[in-house]
Amino acid sequence: MTITMSRRAVLGAAGGALVLTVSVADEAMSMSERQASFTPNVYIELLPDGVTQLTVPRTEIGQGVRTSLAMLLAEELAVPFSTVRVRIADLDVRYGSQMTAGSLSVRSLFDPLRRAGATARAVLIAAAARRWGVSPDSCYAVDGQVRHPQRGSLPYQSLLAEAATIDPSTVPVRLLPREQWRILGRPQRRVDTHDVVTGALRYGMDLQIPGTLVAVVARPPTLDATVASVDDRAARAVPGVRNVVTIPSGVAVIATDTATALRARDLLTITWNQPRLNADSRTWRQELMAAAPEPTQIPSGGEVFRATYQMPMLACSPMEPSNATAHVRPDGTVEIWTGSQNPADARDRAVATTGRPSSRITVHVMPTGGGFGGKLFDRAAEEAVRLSAVTGTPVRVMWTRQDETRHCLARPASAHTMVAVLDGSGTPIWRHHGVATWPLTVMPFLNEQFILQDGNHFPYSVPGNVRLALCPAPLPTGFFRSVYSGQFVPAEELFLTAVAHRRGRDPLQLRLDLLRNSEQARLRRCIEEVAEAAVWRNVVGTGRGMGIGCMDNYGSRIAVIADVSVSPTDGLRVHRLFVAVDVGVVVNPLGVEAQVQGAAVDAISIAAGAQLTVRQGAIEQSSFRDYPWLRMDRMPEIQVTIVEPGESTPVGGVGELALPATLAAVGGAVHAATGVAPTGIPYLNRRD
Amino acid sequence: MQIRVNRRLVEVSAPDDTPLLWVLRDHLGLTGPKYGCGIGACGACTSLRAGQPIRTCVVSLAEVGDAEITTIEGLSDNGDHPVQQAWKELDVPQCGYCQAGQIMTTVALLARNPHPTDEDIDEALSGQVCRCGTYQRIRAAVHRAAELAEEER
Lengths: 688, 153
Ligand code: FES
Ligand code: FES
Description:
Oligomer: heterodimer
CATH class of the largest domain in chain B: Alpha Beta
Order of helices and strands of chain B: EEHEEHEHHHH
Distance between the termini of chain B: 37 Å
Radius of gyration of chain A: 27 Å
Strand order of the largest sheet of chain B: 2-1-5-3-4
Largest sheet of chain A: 7 strands, mixed
Number of strands of chain A: 27
Number of helices of chain B: 6
Strand order of the largest sheet of chain A: 11-12-9-18-15-16-17
Strand content of chain B: 5-15%
Bound molecules: FE2/S2 (inorganic) cluster
Number of helices of chain A: 16
CATH topology of the largest domain in chain A: Aldehyde Oxidoreductase, domain 4
Number of domains of chain A: 3
Radius of gyration of chain B: 15 Å
Distance between the termini of chain A: 49 Å
CATH class of the largest domain in chain A: Alpha Beta
CATH topology of the largest domain in chain B: Ubiquitin-like (UB roll)
CATH architecture of the largest domain in chain A: 2-Layer Sandwich
Helix content of chain A: 25-40%
Strand content of chain A: 15-25%
């Protein structure tokens, strides 16, 4: 990390702004290739009007990143939280990766932002000390001012010019000790809520650029289908329709407004070549099950216990479906507006589609209605670029909910073969986990090693091995919250619960027994905390029961207890959910709670029946009706306990943390309630 | 055709069967009501017709008649309707995309039932999907909005 500082004239403001630039290593890509880029990618501008503007190369997908990052900076810079404005940067090669994924946004910026704030604070103190003719050590900063016991105070704004002449490498930079934090670790409400509750926040879908045409696409009805012929006469006859264009992803109708485009799309008569009418996810299931590796050799000396599990395909289905606006101009420039988790993808697609150099392409990152991994690959932007190249106007492509569901990049399905050797007391002394799944077709270079790194997080002291078999993906696949951990962890946890029940042991106690080492202490503590909060009871076969699920991943720990009933009339109902998380240093407890609740809602939805299935070549589901997400009437009370680890623990990831463990906890509770071990997810209403 | 939206009479030229959602968004520039599904299955587009919540994606322009339509933009001048205040106080939204629909549904609920129970809330709000899972805070905020409205009376 390097921090540089300069004074820059700010148009329209009196005097100059003090600008700090920070280079943050590209950690979002650490899973594959970390670029050694040392160009500045975070900008901090102290403006003459007292506002501090922070520009970051990350996207707000609802995770509250703008709030957390403002907190980090405000703390060390010693300015009121309310004076920090966070801007999401437009895409720029200088920023390196601008991907928002992997629960990494706060983790990658935690140190750099605080250090930058502390540097600016030190420089401002040095400037004030120089003006006063006192030692910097006798000054301190608070509320956007430098103070001195005798000399009084100077607001930062009055020091900007002098501060800019000071070389930041010459001032001592000290991070605030934790006991002096006033902002970090305290509940902080979101910075953007007023705009949300007044309807003023403009998402990508809400852009109103004059002259924009709206396009919707008639997409292939079955996998890999292509257009054989189109009769678009009826569609073109609709007033307001401007064009009908066949593109690689289907047939696009371009119109003056959305309703017209949708109406005309329904009037297209398209003949499709449909090479995969027989594709059926039941077959895929069987293939995965058959491919899940068996152990080559099982150690002797105990009872051999085995089980198999199946995990479903899933769609991210963010609340705001994919959409993007593009303007391909005659002068060779391309402008794109998109609510993407990965704006570089939109740029790369524009380069590939138009042949124009990336230097002519601007991508504006819009606020977006949820991501969950579903907005990393910007097919809507590619379509908008193609169509704008035809019309010469700005074009907004909107995916319908049906498009978003049927043409999603599916979270891969998986099959798991679990084998354990149990000693006389029923404690597992050896384990085997054989996984068969598909790669992510959107990232062909992410190989088995990546999948194991992402999915394999068994935290317990049981020796053994994990073996992975990758089968060819039968449909386009991509990211989903927790990706492979969302398969591996529930399978392992369900199995551990089954191991416990096998000999009438308490599943929670068994976990504690397997977490006796000091490096397991953080997870252990989460389990103890959650057991106490939930008043854990191991009761089996009464129709209602508790289950536990745990995970150690993303630098964090989590333990979840679900209290669940299963009945013929009411189905699977989660009554209460107790969560204990250790996310290292807590930036914003409200943000942690919100992320945990959100991921838990995902898990309960999936546990109770949200899944994708394929029949006759097509994904069957198309909306929240048949891909049902949890709603208010089935929302349990979720109690989140934040466990604070010791001083030196780094900040951990939060966004993806609660999904795998909650899936496991609900499954364990279903096992307890019914006395029957689940064989896969969903626990109820499973269709293969 | 003329319709009443947010206390104004506005002129719209669109086919009769145009879903009100697209009239609001594309013709009138009121982008507060959101598109989530277009088939009445998610509630993101919910606005009020004569005080009653409607799914604007499945109500046609012709069905509006001369009833007053209220979108989130027309709820208050400064974002200080008790429901909006409660939403801010309890930090409800995450991505925020569903929240206009949640808020408008709550406004209608409180108008007919100033002190809803949890069961009343379940019944009124279970048509509204929040993909970010903010339900727990929504429930608390509905109760809080009821209190704030009581104080204002
Ligand atoms: S958009 Fe109207 S209910 Fe979903
Ligand atoms: S806040 Fe994101 S969908 Fe509700």
